[in-house]
Amino acid sequence: MSRLYIYTALQFAMFHGPILIVFYVSHGLSLQQVYTLQAIHFLAKLLTEIPAGMFADRVRRRTSLALGALLVAGAYGGIWAGSGFLLFAVMEFLAGAGRAFMSGADSAYIYDELKHRGELSRYSQVESTNFSVLNISFIFYALASGLIASVDIALPYLFSAVFLLAAAGCALLLPEQPVVGPVRGETKKMNQWQIRRAFSAIWKTETLLFATLIGGVYLFLRELNFYTEQPLLTGLGIDIRLFGVLPAVGALLWAVSSFFSPRVFQKVGTSASSILVGCLTVGPAIYLVSGSESLSALVVYAIFYVSYGLGEPLFRILTNRAVEESSLRSTVLSIQSSCALLPFCVIGPWFGSLLDTHSLPAGFGVIASCASMALVLSIVWLLRRGLSLNAA
């Protein structure tokens, strides 16, 4: 899996991530407009997610990964070279569509390749290691981000575009067995049938339904929370050259917690793992409602990354083990991702407007409220459905 790990490191070249909001604000955009751009990004991903998953299931995973990286590279290059809300909106839409082709296909690739090699027992560790590689590589990108931006605020986007181009080339070199499933050239009716089968599998499989609903909520909260980071740093008066330090530390915490996520999952089971992720999301958010103006907020904020690191591999592992047909795996993962994208598309612009007109603690209050409801729903769901503590 060494080639996949290289691809993973390259495709997550988010040099622009730690300064994204600062970049757009420097071009005269309000926070509401910035969040609207991100909503457009996620809307594109939402619209493309399921077709992209079907593409990966029916063609090749590596082709999907390469196409996605190429689209994202083009979008980042356009943002670097361009200006104006309309152009930014088009580029964010293109980037969102590209990310859809990359979402889930890597996870499905890992599972099916290990299954073909007769090494499926290694799946949980390889999946979590892939997440760790992603986050360790982001440490480099984050630390470099502020330094590059101090030369030119748009330059991190150019660096991101170049690395994504390299990722596209790397993806095409991945070894892969032919996809088992429907062949190319099938009718639209067959496509719709595959989507129905994927939805049916989620609805009829208790573990899949749990992973889709609860995992989607926490993924939505992760995206919403990500865009509070830069306003927090700005409010604390942190120099832009240091904007990458918090996400770099967070990525390290994410990588370590991702690596140990399967062990936690195996030791305490589905129920306790899900509740742990919920508590690690609710606790920091509640604290930041009242303490976001002190430097201690940075320490508390870092806990969010531990929650991400434990949670995402957990829901991916649950899903891949529960999907019996390999020809549906990417489609199911895409549907799950869509469950998080839709709420952000609706709430994102409103959340940006809230930050424009109110203080940052109001934003953390929204996150705390949503996370609390998700935690309660997790507990109620597990009690009502009787999901095993040791579900695999």
Spell out the key features of this protein:
single chain; 392 residues; mainly alpha; 15 helices; disordered C terminus
What does this structure look like?
55% of the residues are buried. Helix 9 (188-204) packs across helix 10. With 392 residues, the chain is mainly alpha-helical. It is built from 15 helices and no strands. The chain has helices at residues 2-11, 20-26, 31-58, 61-81, 85-102, 105-117, 123-149, 155-171, 188-204, 206-226, 229-235, 245-291, 296-322, 329-357, 360-385.
Please summarize what this structure is:
By secondary structure, this protein is mainly alpha-helical.
Q: How would you summarize the topology of this molecule?
A:
Blueprint: H1 2-11, H2 20-26, H3 31-58, H4 61-81, H5 85-102, H6 105-117, H7 123-149, H8 155-171, H9 188-204, H10 206-226, H11 229-235, H12 245-291, H13 296-322, H14 329-357, H15 360-385
Helix pairs in contact: 1-7, 1-8, 3-4, 3-5, 3-14, 4-5, 4-6, 4-8, 7-12, 7-13, 9-10, 9-14, 10-13, 10-14, 10-15, 12-13, 12-15
